[in-house]
TrEMBL record:
<protein>
    <submittedName>
        <fullName>SPW_0924 family protein</fullName>
    </submittedName>
</protein>
<feature type="region of interest" description="Disordered">
    <location>
        <begin position="24"/>
        <end position="44"/>
    </location>
</feature>
<dbReference type="InterPro" id="IPR048001">
    <property type="entry name" value="SPW_0924-like"/>
</dbReference>
Length: 44
């Protein structure tokens, strides 16, 4: 019986976290206009 209560409490906490993140939405801001380098530049 304790395991069932613990599982229900964990599920409720996870659902509350998902709903909180969903309600806040995406943060405001911009991304950098410069792309990230994925390779090492050649040395002269």
């Amino acid at each position: 019986m304790r395991a069932l209560i613990a599982a229900a409490a964990g599920l409720a906490a996870a659902l509350a976290l998902v709903l909180t993140v969903t309600a806040t939405g995406t943060p405001e801001g911009r991304t950098s206009p410069r792309p990230l380098l994925t390779t090492v530049p050649a040395h002269p």
